[in-house]
Amino acid sequence: MSAPLSADTETFAPPAPPRPGSLSDLATYRRLHAESLANPDKFWPEQIAEFHWFKQPDHAFTGKGPEARWFPGGRANLAFNALDRHILAGRGDTLALIWESEAVAADRQPREVRRYTYTQLRDEVVRLASALSALGVQSGDRVTIYLPIVPELPIAMLACAWLGAAHNVVFAGFPSQALLDRIEDSGSHVVITADGGWRNGKVVPLKPILDEALNRTALVRHVVVLRHTGSPIELRAGRDHLWSELVASGDPAHPPAQVPSGHPSFLMYTSGSTGKPKGIAHGTAGYLVHTGLTARHAFDLHPGDVVWCTADPAWITGHTYTVYGPLLAGATTVIYEGILSSPDWDRAWDIIARHRPQVLYTTPTLVRAWIRHGETGLRQRDLSSLRLLASVGEPIGPSVWRWFREVVGAGRTPVVDTWWQTEAGAAMIFPFPYATPAKPGSASLPFFGVQPALVGADGREVVGAGSGQLVIKSPWPGMLLGIWNNPQRYRATYWETIPGFFLTGDTARRDADGYFWVLGRADDVIKVNGHRLGTAEIEGAIVAHASVAESAVVGVPDEQVGEAVLAFVVLKSGYEADDTTRAAIVREIETQVGKLARPREIRFLESLPKNRSGKILRRLLREYAITGKVSGDVSTLDDSTALPPAAPSA
Q1: Number of Cβ within a 10 Å radius of residue 210
Q2: Looking at the predicted structure, is the pLDDT value of residue 95 above 80?
Q3: What is the mean pLDDT of residues 34-58?
Q4: What's the per-residue H, E or C state across 120-155?
Q5: Residue 541: its pLDDT value, please?
Q6: Of 24, 287, 349, 379, which sits 20 to 30 A from 169 (CA to CA)?
Q7: What is the rounded distance in angstroms from the CA atom of residue 633 to the CA atom of residue 414?
């Protein structure tokens, strides 16, 4: 451990890079980052030279704000770059994908493992692309994909990209109405699904849910159905086609679409404040470059490396770093079908010991779950293949960061804490693992071409150290094209609140070294006696206590102070949910955040309500705290027993 860069936290010096070619000098990073902003037309041509272009771009980008477009004049294909580029370089026999099913035998070995080389994966992709083309799918169309986490999911994504069709992957836990909303908004005439998927030892039906949705629309002309679980399904003549029969006649020589740089590559629907999901549209060339370069720089991925990103490809992290990023880097991506508590919480360590990834990219939520369930199983497995750990999805508290490094990483791996979001396309702020001194809890410094800034409550940009709303000052390569079918909503949501800046919706602070500390969503605040308290800061203080595995904080109405802090806490095994523990947690909060943040009440739970991507559902907690029950759509709730049936009103 090196001396701190500044006084507010300890700093971990980056380890020596494992091989040549890794950026390993902070001064070099700062020079390159400055150049990427000051002279993009000089900086980017060298950076993009490793990718395959059917036609080279004319410029780095044109336009500004919501009209900015990256690498105009160029033509490329995302799937060709992810597959054929490596085959042409002589790496066709390199493993591209390892898939493991959830079901295990008595000896804990998975009942099914499938492996694909780059050549094998490419053949599967192009055969499906040819079959989809025969169904009428053309460049510019949208295809909805509603599949479990099986190899056919990335194959379907890549097949769409091969044709220049935008894929719209819908989470395989969504009910029929959510699925229907996304099919109709995207204008998909073709849907790819399966009979069902396995989750926690049970079959989750998919085709019946799709049928229910399609009973309410005449938009969809063709449905491609994968046989996976063997559960009974109905096939409608003329509309429904079995995957196996369709691809049998596919042409492995079907040519890739040579699409313009700004051509839509995929839609990703996110929750909106109005309740209607918004379809975030991403382009081709900018997403390709941003994803490919961050896979190399954030995770130091080289051809032949093995990486395991625990994210479902139905979410943006899975799109970018389970599927596209590893394949653009020529690496091997590990994909797991089920949940990581099946058959128990040692499943993750079994996967690492079995498939030997060098990189593990996961969420703080999962890390906290591993902390809670103990280290015995972890220490019984060989995790020595890991050389880099990474975090995504929410701020990672310093104590969780340290446990991740010291226990999972055996005290030798860098921890790459990444900040980005669906709209960003790929990682925006992160430490270069072998160049950036790491501060536990800080996402650290921006990637090339990314210019974050802070705006205070007065609407002015914060200069130097300070805090405020996190905004982006200039276009970046992976930026979204817009909101599908709603350009005005795009401008109003992201560009017009603070004119001249892209509004991320997060709050952050910047320290004296220029490091960014993301504090959470701007609307995740509790106003106590007129003072705004960030929930992430309070939760971080709670989790810092040795007894706590996880926490979530919400604000509830209070006549005296406006809103009161209510904390939900999950304890580690061996600790008692008693007054002594409560008092100790309160002292930790008062020490780190101040007495204003003292919770009116601390409630202990066995687990926190989360959706299937691991995000804590604070809306449910707040409703539960106020009314003692939960209503509305809870279809994405991962564990229906996370909240007891009733609670006293707060």
Answers
A1: 26
A2: yes
A3: 97
A4: HHHHHHHHHHHHHHHCCCCCCCEEEEECCCCCHHHH
A5: 85
A6: 349
A7: 40
